[in-house]
Amino acid sequence: MRLASGHKRGMARATWGEYLLAAALLMPSGALAAADFKSPPVAPAFTPLPTSAFAELPFVEDVDLSPDGTHIAGLFGIGGEQRILMMPVRGDRSKPIIVAVPDQTQVAWIRWVGNDNIIVGLYALMPVEGDRWYISRAIGINRGTGKITKLLWDSGGQNASDILWVPTDGGTEILIAAQNSIYSNEADFWPTVYRVDVATGRKRVAERPRANIFDWGADHLGQVRFGIGYRDASTQSTLLFRSNGEGSLRVIDSAKLGAEEELTVPFHFVPGSNNGFVITESKGGRAAVVEVDIPTGKPVRTVYAADGVNVESVLMASNGAKLLGVRTSDRDAPLRWLDPAMAAHQKTLEEASPQSAVRIESISADQSKMLVRFSTPDNPGLLFYFDAATGDLVKLAAMNETIGGRRLSRGRMVRYKARDGLEIEGVLTMPRGRRDKNLPFIVMPHGGPWGHDELTYDYWAQFLAERGYAVLQPNFRGSTGYGAAFEKAGQGQLGFAMQDDVSDGVYWAVKEGIADPKRVCIVGGSYGGYAAMWGTVKDPDLYRCAISINGVANLRREVNDFGGLMRERLYRGQWQRMTPDFAAVSPINAIARIKAPLLLIHGKKDVTVDHGQSARMYAAMTKAGKTVEFVSVPLADHYFTRQADRMTLLTSIETFLAKHNPAD
User: Fold this and answer.
1) DSSP letter at 94?
2) CA atoms 384, 81, 1, 227: torsion sign
3) Would you give the DSSP letter of residue 658?
4) Which residues, other chains included, contact 602 with Cβ-Cβ below 8 Å and sequence gap of 6+?
5) Contact at 8 Å (CB) between 543 and 578?
6) Comparing C-alpha atoms, which of 402, 360, 374 is closest to residue 77?
7) Which of 152, 186, 326, 465 could form a disulfide with 409 if both were Cys (CB 3.0 to 4.6 A apart)?
């Protein structure tokens, strides 16, 4: 178990590429007492790691441990590309199963169903009736045979991969909600809930479609307990509920999402009652876990709350019957285990490597075996297998074999005041082997903009630091993780105060003597790419150069492109609250103000930000006689999940910076 956290017309039938079964891969493992990270060299002189070290794909992402704790599944870096892989953790040398990710497709999630099968969620941006829509489907893969089973691929709707429930008794039937039409005037536009056998693909109806119900939810026993209604014309959402999985659904709550009202939806049902757990605002204005009487909405008790801390996500037992812990906004101790046994395991692991951040990535059904990542902000980390019953802690792999246990450039959290007095937090990474004053400087705003950077390993920041640059990643207003008030402070400020927060981070670093004011560049991806371009417009004399990676040049065009999603009116409204005038803060409309050289990098297979955003910006910059370079990467997606594409990305950045803002 991993620990986490439709349209009005219709869709052309999805056509996916052939799935390739690769040859077997055996993984070496060796027992270690604890994670062993090497200290950075004391002497200032050092030999920088090659670019290829940072371009190397992570050993695994989205890793999940089978319920019995004997096998793992995830997205593994194999031969320079990500592959879906299932393999034994240790001992058993049976053939691993390796499956290629279909072209033009992203993996959304991977999850075990029993010990012999996984399900994989896939999505792609595909042409539908002259538009491009996000299409989602799921597949099952058998661990023993490698057989791939398409699940509900005969559905005629846009989305057919909403997993509501997975059994924990060894069964292979799961609950999936799927649309069967793209036309809103047809009953099948609204999702049907199916019981689907992941091994055979056979299906049967569990809940028929109901007008305006676009989302369904089930309890840990696999009973459909609620539906969420939605009308995009009014952005009105309703919660419909039934007691103990029986009887008819009835409306118990409503909210106008476009007016920023929230619908409180249970994530857990208390067995034998109509009570449930929700994440809602506590008395202190912070998000907490509260048990409520679902039909009335009245609170029963506070399950977890802490002063000054928001609950951001929850960690459930694999059977869904028990809340194990919560992840919070606390930077020093984000994980709070509520289960005493898991808290004890966490303590044991932290004592094994006290200088590391210890994250339990996935646990077995009986909570005795787990995958654990030991990492530091200056190292991508080591993946271990922990058997709590025996106390064995076995190293599976370094997340980056070339870097191994080396400690790279040190990062720390910093705070500074924006020009209007608002406190901004950011991650500052100082280059190893260099003096700590008057450095060439990179400010790197995050994507989203609804997101935030944390004090964790970041391969872009570490690569830039390895080349001699100090790197600041500011969590500007509007970022998540700092409470509702801070997030709402970004409304109306996209291109204005949000951008000023980024530039004010530069002014702070100059005042502190960290940054050389004559050697500052701005770099970012996605929304950060927009901020990089807009920074050269709003503060043309501050930046010596700028790099936009898969960035947005034309906000009006971008915010009207929601891939045919059902809630496009709601999403458009959310963006419109961010700025009063899209055109006025779009870089493509303000090229005359740009003085700094600009590098545009964009993957042609990006399904998040259209490649044309960078292509049109390049054409406009060239026509205006501005200094601009464009690196179009033919096979790259939004996240550069191919090693060759990461190499192209980093090499292009390195070459451009050496020309326009050399570190030496």
Assistant:
1) P
2) positive
3) H
4) 549, 550, 551, 609, 611, 613, 614, 615, 630, 631, 632, 633, 636
5) no
6) 402
7) 465
Residue 532 to residue 473: CA distance in whole angstroms: 12
pTM of structure: 0.86
Strands of the 439-443 sheet, one edge to the other: 411-417, 423-429, 470-475, 439-443, 515-525, 545-549, 598-603, 628-633
Residue 501's nearest CA partner among 490, 512, 515 is 490
* 2-11, 149-158, 415-424, 490-499: the lowest-pLDDT one: 2-11
Cβ atoms 75, 81 nearer than 8 A? no
One-letter identity of residue 625: G
Which segments within 418-542 are labelled E, that is strand? Answer: 423-429, 439-443, 470-475, 515-525
* Measured distance CA(341)–CA(350) in Å, rounded: 14
Q: How far apart are CA 639 and CA 605, in angstroms?
A: 10
Q: Rounded to an integer, what distance in angstroms lies between the CA atom of residue 211 and that of residue 215?
A: 11
DSSP state of 622: H
Query: Measured between alpha carbons, how far is 569 from 485 in angstroms, rounded to an integer?
Result: 24
pLDDT digit string (tens) for 413-434?
999 999 999 999 999 999 998 9
Q: Is the pLDDT of residue 122 over 50?
A: yes
What gap in Å lies between CA 282 and CA 623, rounded to an integer?
Answer: 55
- Interstrand relation of 287-293 and 275-281 (parallel, antiparallel or unpaired): antiparallel
Q: Is residue 364 helix, strand or coil? A: coil
Whole-angstrom Cα distance, residue 220 to residue 132? 36
Number of H helices, E strands in the chain: 10, 36
Is 87 exposed, middle or buried, given 0-12, 13-18 or 19+ CB atoms closer than 10 A? buried
Q: Which of 410, 395, 401 is nearest to 355 (CA)?
A: 410
Here the tokens at position 87 are 């393999």
- DSSP notation for 482-517: S-HHHHHTTTT-TTTHHHHHHHHHHHHHHHTT-EEE
Would the CA dihedral through 418, 420, 421, 422 be positive or negative?
Answer: negative
Question: The tokens 């499956």 sit on which residue?
Answer: 99
Distance between first and last Cα of the chain: 48
Task: Considering only residues 632 and 42, tell me which one the structure prediction assigns the higher pLDDT.
Answer: 632
Q: Bridge partners of 73? A: 64, 86
Q: 411-660: which CATH topology?
A: Rossmann fold (3.40.50)
Q: Could you tell me the pLDDT band of residue 3, with boundaries at 50, 70 and 90?
A: very low
HSE, CB side, 13 Å, CA atoms: give it for residue 578. Answer: 24
* Residue 270 structure tokens: 């208390």
**What is the rounded distance in angstroms from the CA atom of residue 31 to the CA atom of residue 393?**
7
Cβ–Cβ < 8 Å for 113, 140:
yes
Predicted confidence (pLDDT) per residue in 282-322, tens digit: 767 788 999 999 988 899 999 999 888 889 899 999 888 89
DSSP letter for each residue of 244-275: GG-S--EEEEEEEGGGT------SEE-TTSSE
The whole-angstrom separation of Cα 107 and Cα 110 is 8
Rounded distance between C-alpha atoms, residue 367 and residue 387, angstroms: 9
| DSSP reduced 3-state for 568 | helix
Provide the residue count of the chain.
Answer: 664
**pLDDT surpasses 50 at 115:** yes
User: What is the amino acid identity at position 505?
Assistant: G
* Count of CB atoms situated within 10 Å of the CB of 477: 24
Give Cβ neighbours of residue 130 (< 8 Å, ≥ 6 apart).
none
- Please choose, from the candidates 146, 133, 137, the residue with its C-alpha nearest in 3D space to the C-alpha of residue 176: 137
pLDDT of residue 189: 92
